[in-house]
Specification:
The structure is a homodimer of 343-residue chains. Chain A has helices at residues 20-29, 42-52, 64-76, 92-99, 116-126, 146-152, 211-216, 228-238, 241-264, 285-297, 321-339, and strands spanning 7-8, 59-62, 82-86, 103-107, 130-134, 161-165, 187-192, 205-209, 268-269, 276-280, 300-301, 313-317. By secondary structure, chain A is α/β, with parallel strands linked by helices.
Amino acid sequence: MGRPFLARLGANENVFGPSPKAVEAIRSAAADLWMYGDPESHDLRGALAAGRGIGVENIVVGEGIDGLLGYLARMLVEVGDTVVTSDGAYPTFNYHVAGFGGVLHKVAYKGDNEDPDALFAKAAEVGAKIVYLANPDNPMGSWHKGADIVKAMDKLPAGCLLVLDEAYVEFAPEGTAVELDIEDPRLIRMRTFSKAYGLAGARVGYALGAADLITSFNKIRNHFGMNRSAQIGALAALNDPDWLAQTCANVAAGRTEIARIAAQNGLVALSSATNFVAVDCGADGAFAKAVLDGLVTRGVFVRMPFVAPQNRCIRVSAGRPEDLKRFAAALPEALTEARSQPA
Amino acid sequence: MGRPFLARLGANENVFGPSPKAVEAIRSAAADLWMYGDPESHDLRGALAAGRGIGVENIVVGEGIDGLLGYLARMLVEVGDTVVTSDGAYPTFNYHVAGFGGVLHKVAYKGDNEDPDALFAKAAEVGAKIVYLANPDNPMGSWHKGADIVKAMDKLPAGCLLVLDEAYVEFAPEGTAVELDIEDPRLIRMRTFSKAYGLAGARVGYALGAADLITSFNKIRNHFGMNRSAQIGALAALNDPDWLAQTCANVAAGRTEIARIAAQNGLVALSSATNFVAVDCGADGAFAKAVLDGLVTRGVFVRMPFVAPQNRCIRVSAGRPEDLKRFAAALPEALTEARSQPA
């Protein structure tokens, strides 16, 4: 529309921003950008490994989870290979799978949750090479206990890899992250500095898994692909757990406020373990789209799920108080407008 | 060795650094890194297009030339496709070609120059889908006139794409860059902010070519792969032509100084159109390696070509006066040491 949004609540960004220590580290590194970044991300991987009691050979750093999902598809997906995912979940991996000639099988949500049991049963049924599961889920914000996912993994067929996207896990209740022997060959986990650490624009993701699998990324990744100051900033962010805790508290307060605003307007906000909330607009996808359009017209950027019946919702980031004030002001008008439209 | 190099002259980095305006822009953008970068790199592509009188649809921005070469290989190389390159030239594209099952044919240098006539004749002979040529060349620093490359392109077989890597072209004499109708389907050119613009650590490359080819990158590239402040910094660097001119003058002075130091030690520095100089150590690859090791031991980081007879040289970046002073101090000792080793 040729002007910035008044409230940017649609891209799952963390409006509370990165640690001031990360900002300062990135500023200090700016004049050194004539040097390439470390192709091995040695310091960052070392810190991540030490924090988990695993080896650096169990961690690969890449250009966001999207970049790592692309590498993973390139490594593993051959023409005709089958991959199982949830219908309506985060779609980027699907694009890569299709691009390499893989065959996608989609499993429906169960309620508003991805359904590990059904996903893994489908994987067994079709002899899948890979299953993709996001926990917590985007776009719905729902989640499973890590232990329940591990239990469900018994159903995975032999040789099948679970790609577990934990992009939002720092926002989730204790026990959401999967705990499993890092060398278990059935699992690779994806993590990021884009969400809880507030560095979406820096492009720093990482994958955790068995050394054999992780090492094989080195055959194909863009070795000098990591921005130097992003590596430095991510390390500084990792070393500021207080800021992370404060961010998670801010996000939790934002989720509560979104739920309050929704209720005030007669709508239901779904429980969320992420930094966004799916708000059920109470009708179909066309109605939710009308509400979304009304919000966007009023300078409040939100998005919505792609697939029915989840597309009865709009997805709103847990913003700062001033962002949510704008959302609160715009929502009643957007709802009135949407209700006045011919069905 | 557990300590930083005294002079970092081996990675083809630009030690004169980025424009202070770029540094300032990157610093100013640091706190905004919670936002994703523009997936279309709209402002940067717009400025690049305007400067060339071409359309934004003729430019794709990516995570360095290495990243773009990887995308290009993914787009074009199928199992059994043939690709022609120079034996001993920049190898990254080769890795991608091999990774996608392509078959590489290598053509020898002619003297210390890549040989466009021989490359394109070989392409015709083997029915190549792609030819890779760097102009100016890495690792030798040699170059051809753009017009001569265009003339040689008459030999390309029908349907063959020339990937022309112009990473160093801003350092080269007027007339080195290829001038050709941007919609000519035989050519894609690779450019970067890593070299003359001094932003190697930012990872910003771009490709110039026919709209059809350039647009097809969108099917497979990592759409949110670009660091936000890198986009902003590259744009600021582009808008500071005075700094670029000063850098090129500094680099030219550095090349002259390297030639002087080489001559002082009885060695010959090859002519260079880049920000590094290949210094002929006057014997074979083993001797050059001994010289290189002696420099590295003394804290002066340099590299050398992989393939004979180019591996009789060491490759030295056109550093600052203080860097080259260290090189000048270390070289005689490294040479003496190398000459005292048993053959």
